[in-house]
Amino acid sequence: MTLRPPLLLAVAALVLATSCTPGAGGGGGGDGKSFEFWSFAAINQKLSVDAYRAKRPDVEVKLTEVGTSVETAQALTTALAGGKVPDLVLIQGDNLPQFVQQPQNFVDLRTLGADDMAGDYLDWVWKQSVAKDGEVLGVPTDVGGMAVAYRTDLFAAAGLPTDPEAVSALWPTWDAFIETGKRYKQATGKAFTDNAATSVFYQAVNQVSEKYYSEDRKLVYETNPQVKAAFELGIKAATAGITAGQSSFESAWSAGMAQGQYAAVSAPSWMLNTIRSTAPDTNGKWNIAKIPGGSGNWGGSYLAIPKRAKNPQAAWDYIKEMQSPQGQLEHFTRVGALPSTPSVYQDPKLADAKDPFFSDAPTGKIYTDAVLGLKPFYIGPDSATIGQEFLNAITNVEQSGGDPATAWDDAVRNIKTAIGG
Amino acid sequence: MTAVAVTLAPVRPAPPPPVPRTYRGLGERLAPYAYIAPFFIIFAVFGLFPFAFTFYVALFDWNPIGDQVFIGVDNFTRMFGDPRFWNAAGNTVSIWALSTIPQLLLALVLAHVLNHARLRFALFFRMSMLVPYVTSVAATAIVFVQLFDRDYGLLNWLLGLVGVQPVDFVQSTWGSHVLIATMVIWRWFGYTTLLYLASLQAVPRAIYEAAAIDGAGAWQRFRHITVPSLRPVIIFTVVTSTIGGLQIFTEPLLIATGAPLTCGAVRQCQTLTLFLYEQGFGQFEFGYGSAVGVALFVMVVAIAAVNYLLSSRIRADR
């Protein structure tokens, strides 16, 4: 019976990954005419690469779409620990801090001229990729300004307004958003939004002035009243009966999206692409309203060059070309990812951009407003783990019958176990 | 006999003179080792070394892309006080019990039926038992998750027809365990059945016929002939499926797609191997992950030891 190999394989993989010294060997040595690029799947990175190929036909770009943003970060960690590293890699903002903690694994982009570009980018976005001694590890490719996407047809059927201005006026606060959800549920008997954890808590907790760490980089998640308030909102939404209890991005969530089960979903700028691809039949039935509670950011990614990259210069040329303000603006017109370079926010291509899939909602203006009004906060090495435990606690109340009264204490205890604090 | 030995001793020819140590003689003596070397070299590289190295890494706070700090047994102290570890251990035992016991009983009955003398198309039935076993685990998981889905699943649709509220299999503790156990049973029952069947076919049919003539019913024949003659192979399957049960990994990884590494929001179906993987490759705490691997190894060894005692007792009974 072949039951032993799984254990052996797991252990072997664990050890193979550990047995090579990190950061061994310098970079360079490639032909400079080609480079390898790891990106996430399903974000249409290929369009950008194709555009670059058109501009620089002499350079060969080998694009690999590794998987989700988390899977890409995991593959990168394993590669950095002792495998073949790419020349250029896309890192999602939530995963960035764990790499910023270990700057010796990456090329300090200042050596390639990053200092000259720093002024082009939103200051708080740029700062997140700066390591403790000032090394610049990544260039921000986009930000994820927040909004709410809603179904005009479902809102009309429930007797709610459908005009974006009027809808935004329905929910100046998250409490009002939950009340609207109750009205919708009463009128139709159906769920208002997909889930409480990502659509309410994760939005609200990104609208704070200080999140899990204080400005001087100390852990404050347990005592920060803003985090507690966002968590309570999540619990309130979970227990109000307005959610479908479908966790974001699960297969059943996609099925629900395609079947029009959710009247409103949180929609950071990159989510528009997800809605478009999971529910193509709902074309024209959506519109976009302001997010309750003011502006905020969720997501956004960075391009980095590993230290052992064979073709760092070719990768840097790509960054300089494609992540310049004009390059990001062009990328916006292709896939709708919001630029991290404020100088183009007034450009008519962005400011006047409308999205026909979302009833010609002025996406450019909505998302730039959300980002410009933002209060930046420090994201630390354990932010992703802490956020995940809070999400889990709310999902537990919503979907597994957990006790809302003990949810906060449970979450804090789980966080302490997870981060060993 | 001794007399023969004594009489033969004097006539045994003197030993031949020792062969000089030529290059050819050395080569001949080393050749067998060269033939078996590929296996042992690969085993040493991919089996023995990683295995030993795991014990070493378990003593460190080991960041694969950062520092590696020696911390002694701290990983183990942390593990014994970690509710996530005990939760994973509990889940593993629960899923093992839910999958192994019904699977072995089912296989026993099926083997008995398939061994029936008057069964037509016996070969077809016996071979078709192996189809789930040769199906990829991932494919099985995708199909079962859809069957058991809360909103769109076939099973909940059937339950709805008889007025039962939809059950959220993945998000509830017992539901997720049942779902995983069902997948494990589905995959392994055919294999176990064939093992039992092979063993049963060694039992002379005359015993069954004699018992039938003596008036033994079907149940009595099953109870007093089938089960006792299968005892060694039952012990074997109990042990192998227990070791396999401790290592259930793919099924829990694939059923909760929103939080795959924890198998759901509250780790309701996270097994020990999945916890190891989460710590090693999700959190990249290689030291702690290795410590969990060492604990798993100790458990497997303990079960193998119990097996040894049991099987030697069975041999003694005979």
TrEMBL record, chain A:
Keyword Cell membrane: no
Alphabetical keyword list: Signal
Keyword set includes Signal: yes
Family matches, as Pfam families: SBP_bac_8 (PF13416)
InterPro entries: Bact_solute-bd_prot1, SBP
TM regions (residue ranges): none
Domain of life: Bacteria
Signal peptide: 1-24
Protein name: ABC transporter substrate-binding protein
Lineage per the UniProt record: Bacteria, Bacillati, Actinomycetota, Actinomycetes, Pseudonocardiales
Automatic annotation (TrEMBL), chain B:
Mode of membrane association: Multi-pass membrane protein
InterPro entries: ABC_transporter_permease, MetI-like, MetI-like_sf
GO biological process assignments: transmembrane transport
Domain ABC transmembrane type-1: 89-307
UniProt-annotated location(s): Cell membrane
TM spans (from-to): 33-59, 93-111, 123-148, 178-198, 230-249, 286-310
Entry keyword Transmembrane: yes
Keyword GTP-binding set for record: no
Source superkingdom: Bacteria
Keywords carried by this UniProt record: Cell membrane, Membrane, Transmembrane, Transmembrane helix, Transport
Gene Ontology cellular component annotations, sorted alphabetically: plasma membrane
Principal subcellular localization: membrane
Record family assignment: Belongs to the binding-protein-dependent transport system permease family.
Protein known as: ABC transporter permease
